[in-house]
Structure formats: structure tokens, C-alpha cells
Fold this protein.
Amino acid sequence: MSSMTFGQKTFTPTPPEKGSFPLDHEGRCKSSMLRYMICLQEKNNDNSQCRKEAKDYLNCRMENYLMAKEEWSKLGFSEVDVNAEESNKK
């Protein structure tokens, strides 16, 4: 039996603006995701202690077009976090 019945409109799903993003089928960000997951496990799921790993993972996703590029402040990272990390790289 077909799913189309007389007069029924077809449903076209639309993705949400936030909260859902493409899966990393090619594993481009797998290593940064694993570092983040290991950090969470070691820190008893205290994500505040894994902010660097979380930022690295999100950055990888943005660089590989697996999510839209966003300002760090919109992703929960303050300017202090961003500036501190940049000064540590120098």
C-alpha cells in the first residue's frame, strides 16, 4: 500500500537552525572528538574542565563545514577564553 493517499500533502522536513548538525561520516574531527570525550571521562563529566578540548572540536567542525561558523561568544566561550588561548599559542 502506498504512503500517499488521495488529497494528502507531502511532508517536507526542514532541519532546525540550531541544535542539530551533520554527522562526521568521514571522521575528519574524530580525533578532537575523542580527546574531548576522554577528557570528560577523566574529569567525571565536568565539562568546565574540558573547555579547550570542546573548543578544538567545535573549531574542527566549523573548519570542515560540518557546522556553521559562529562567534565563540555564541557558543559559550567568552572573549577571556579566546584571548587566553591565543596568548598561550604565542
Q: What stands out?
A: DSSP finds three helices and no strands in the chain. Residues 30-42 form the longest helix (13 residues). The mean pLDDT is 81. The helical segments are 30-42, 51-63, 79-89.
